[in-house]
Please model this.
Amino acid sequence: MNKFYHTLKTIFLLGWSIFVVFPFLWALSTSFKDANAITSGATYIPWVDFEPSTQGWTSLFTTGSRGINIIGPFIDSAAVTLIASLVSLILGTLAAYGLSRFEYRLGFVKNADITFFFISQRIMPPIVLAIPFFLMLKELGALDTIFGLVLVYVALLLPIAVWVMTDFFAGIPKELDEMAMTDGCTPIGAFFRVILPNSVPGLVVAGMFCLIFGWNDFFFAFTLTFTETQLLPVSIVSLNSSVTPWWSLSAFALISVAPLALVAVVVERYMSRGTMSGAIR
Amino acid sequence: MLSSKHFFLLPALLTLVAIILFPLLFTVRVSFSSWDVFQSGLDFIGGRNYVRVFEDDRFWQSLQRLSLLSIISVSLQYTLGFALALAVWKQVRGGRLLRVLFLIPMMTTPVVMSVIWRTVFHESLGPVNDILSVFGVGPVPWLSSAMGAFISVLIVEVWQWTPFMFLLLLAGLVSLPKEPYLAAAIDGAGTWRTFWQVTFPLMAPITIGALIIRLIEASKIMDTVYVLTSGGPGTATETSSYYIYIRGLRDFQIGYSAALSLVYLVIMVISLTIIAKLLLRMLVGRDE
Amino acid sequence: MLQIDHLTTADAKVSLDDVSFLFEAGNIYTILGRTGAGKTELLRALMGLNPLTDGEVKLDKENITKRPIRDRNMSLVYQQFINYPHLSVLDNVAFPLRRQGKKKAQAQALASTMLGTVGLGDFLHRRPSQLSGGQQQRVALARAMVKQSSILMLDEPLANLDYKLREQLREEFPRLVSDNEESVILYTTTEPREAMELGNTMIVMHDGKIIASGAPADLFANPPTKDTASVISDPPISFISGFVSNKTLYFGEGQIAPSDGLQLPPDGPVTIALRPNAIERGGDFSAKIGLSEFSGSQTIIHLDFAFGRAIMMVDGIEAFNSGDDLRISIQAEQMMLFAPDGRNITIRDNQDG
Model:
């Protein structure tokens, strides 16, 4: 590669890296500011530009009128996301395996149509379902509960799990299932004893996507919960509209995006191995 | 055989049908009712809500705005994502670090980041105008002018979702066959020609998939707008989802918003199907 | 004993067409056919992996056509080396025994013995992916044999191996199955030599049908049809069209062909089959040399005649120039004749009956 290209590439990568990191650094810096440091205009480097203060961080763990409770929403978010992801992964993996190995027929509906039905749910704008979900959960007495949100999130995440796992199973030779059956397994036994133990890469990728989309949802949490159950995105938005100071807001935001930022490390590993190429046609 | 085959599919299928299909059918029924703050319950008023949808300029404008926003942001995401993927594809030194870094934005919660972006774009206290002022530009009314708000939303969308394009395209690049590159090298094709004659055609299927997925997701934009601009100033950044949300869950015009959301869904499905077909014809040259 | 009656399948690519046969226990049957002849489909149909549209499978007189795969008491070795990637070599081989309900220790003991037999005693705790192709196929073989099922099927087990490993495993194969008395062994291959070497009985398949069966040497010497002869193509066999007129055999263009010792059919077209041993150097015919290649200690020469093409072999390594003329003779006693409908109509004077 010639020098011109190389320089161009370096500038581009550097520029983009700064763009990516900028909001995080800004939030980090802001989280250590106090009122003086903020109202005097944009400041960046602690000790140089402003005198750092830890009140943004301590306020998150203080109870009472001056504090903002982040622990409750964090636990609720984690519970809803983990349970919904797990349920979606289990149901989705089973369905994807079925669709990749057996022939289903219901009138003119065949495997491809069923797969499409699953995946096409991603096209559904949340707003279309918001009102019926609201009324449905009200009927079930599940408004403002973790259970209600899990139910809704499963519908949201199931298509993702089916989508990733269908492609994954398509890449596992059918001979492996057949071999298990000739060796004395039932079709269900073949799945659990042979296919599932060999599906870890697919399960990881599907699981990651479920976690990302579950953890980051705002709309349903916003419309279907109020006070009893509160997830992180909803809490921060309600803080945002009140008079919450920037330092608390920034600290809160950083804590709430931190767990998933770690997911990037895992996703990168699978992407570079090429395990993920099958995930998209 | 019969039972085991159903053991796999039925739990997921029934769950999805129960959670999605019934609410959807219910929405259809509600859209023919006058359910609102004053009158709750299912009466039947025929297609009056739908007639109202077609006369509702604010809805059609939101749809135009949404199309513009989706197409511009997805094009930018694709171009930048592809460029980034190509740039780190064969990067050995620091490659891993860059890849992880570039993926992080898509892992973060859009509304949470929007809260931060709001402070970033703040006209007097935010860093963007501060930095611009060094170059003698500004102050730019980022969130209080129509143009500024639109561009802000665009920047946030690009920041958040370019990583998704990057992810899919890099995963595609990693699994490309080696032979065509050898052939191109033997033919003496340069970097530029190799890209257009080898890489780009080989990546066409993934390109189509990635574009469609992103367009689908972009057509639902609402979180970012809600936090960043609340659709404003005025209705300058109001997307369809957000408008329907206002009608349905803020004004509580349940029947009317049901009709709006169904019209919106149908338009989405039709236009995305057309776009998918066009992309297939353009990039792969086949009709299916 | 395995009996199949009128097996018919409706697979999209290759389907079985009314296949019947009786397999006796203690025998090794090699099934020879080209790619797409239906060999794999036959094994899969027996195993219950491909649905039948018609026909029955009987194992020791018991109809097992509808029996689930796991209860069929059959084992199968695939052409691709299919093993369980998540299990060690030992657990791979113990897997079927565990499914039969054997205790872990017992299953592992039996598996370990079997792995010793196939020469993998030192690799018990490796993963299959850490082994060479040949070793992986040995694991698959051990797993198939350890079950001691009544039917052992091997679907081109050597096809995906390197030449050397293939030769090695092929030489060992008779020893591995030498103490077999109770099971039927089915072994498919596209290679005539392998089929003739390994089987007591050779079955020739073509277009989804069994077109010939019998002792390998008999089938080689007297293939009943032209299709059979063409499938048994090692050493290569060449077909030249000709005709009989007035008690004389002619090659296609009207050149008189040798027919000493052959009883010629009535006037009409025939197909003349030449194996390399029917052609010798020096003689009345002139041929142009096409390609020449070395195979072991022999040289294979592709010849172009005025009336067709044939292949001859010369002992020793010798360079021939493409395009040169070569004088050759054709030995009538090594020729075979086939009728237009494909029947073998070779009758020799000295032949009884």
